[in-house]
Amino acid sequence: MTQTLTLESVQVRAVSIPLKRPIVAAVGTFKEWALVLVDVRTKEGIVGSAYLEPYRPRSIAAIKHSIEDLGDLFKGQQLAPLDIYDASMRSLHTVGREGITLIAMAGLDMAIWDALAKAANMPLATLLGGSPGPLRAYNTNGLWRIPLEKLGDEAAALVAEGDYAGVKLRLGRPSIKDDIQAIANVREAVGEDVHIMTDFNQCLPFGEALLRLHGLDDQGLYWFEEPIVYDNIEACAQLAREVKTPIQIGENIYGPREFYKAVVAHAADMYMPDLMRIGGVTGWMRSAAIAGAAGLPLSSHLYPEVSAHLLRANETADWIESRDWGNPILAEPFEIKDSKIIVPDRPGNGIAWDEAAVKKYAI
Question: Which of 99, 134, 195, 273 could form a disulfide with 222 if both were Cys (CB 3.0 to 4.6 A apart)?
């Protein structure tokens, strides 16, 4: 019988980890990557762990306060993630169910699900009705807006890190000629059998996106990700209708209801929810059911550890976005082998802190 758990306290910490390859993208340049660590402690002694990726270190204080506030709200209550999710959403009606408020709830939700899986002595994927095992992964650890002449060597190195069958290239350079050259340099380095996913990080105005994507439509790319601002759903839908290469969006969609609106509007051909914005494990599973019913391929955005469990329990799982930015603080990073991330057969979501590293990178 699964053990009933009672929330006792929530611990929130933050770290900043130097990046092996700095992020140089339309959203900004990052030489370090901040993580907010969330530990839900129960009266029964089981601890559930998760993390958030806040992008901007200046937002950490607000996120931390919001998580602690939610922890106080549910202190002494049974860890029932669906009940806590719904109660959290109701509590957010007056301040909004997007942004930091939903992000905080997502961090708490992920940690609660980890605690429940540990109490059941099974991997999270198994608790959700799936099983541990492999998932195909692409490497997103590089190919930012670096000089064109450096792209080939970096692409080859990224493939070699795990014999990857896919890599992500950031586009939206000053001209379409530059984007075409970037694709050519990567293709020459990785060969015809490696998939190239591309990401514009919302950098194009709609008119420019129409011209640019039509001009790149014969390049054999796996997808065009977020060519325009994410909440212009009507324009996203027009791009999806007109362009042959699949349009991928989802990382900036807040919650299952907004996810549903995008799917109904045919805003994209593929979706990639972000655990922090979609509402944690609960928000992801509700959104994944919508994608599954519509037959839409579902990939992940960041959070490879928890996302891997969720994709193993979803019917239209496509790719997992593999990145190693959080590995330095993990006791056992997930294995990458033959272009696949391996969901381990151990209780919970597989996240355990290397406390010495957490102390080293603490902020």
Answer: 195
Instruction: Provide the CATH number for the domain around residue 297.
Output: 3.20.20.120
What residue has token string 């992964």? Answer: 137
Q: Is the pTM of this model over 0.85?
A: yes
Region 330-351: what's the mean pLDDT?
96
Q: What is the pLDDT of residues 109-147, one digit of tens each?
A: 999 999 999 999 999 999 999 999 999 999 999 999 999
Q: Based on the number of CB atoms within 10 Å of its own CB, is 5 exposed (0-12), middle (13-18) or buried (19 or more)?
A: buried
Alpha carbons 292 and 308: distance in angstroms, whole number: 16
> Quick one: 279 and 311 in the same domain?
yes
pLDDT bracket for residue 26 (50, 70, 90):
confident
The residue whose two tokens read 């958030």 is 52
With both helix axes pointing from N to C terminus, report the angle between 176-190 and 206-215 in degrees, rounded to the nearest 10. 40
Containing structural domain, residue 83: 7-121+356-361
Specify the DSSP element, H or E, that contains 89: helix 81-91
Rounded CA separation 195/138 (Å)? 8
Total of domains in the chain: 2
Asked if residue 25 is part of any domain, the answer here is: yes
* CA-closest candidate to residue 263, choices 301, 229, 239, 295: 295
Same domain, 103 and 138: no
Considering the domain boundaries, does residue 274 fall inside one? yes
Same domain membership, residue 156 and residue 73: no
**146 and 99: one domain?**
no
Structure tokens at 330: 């993990």
Question: In 3-state terms, what secondary structure has residue 362?
Answer: strand
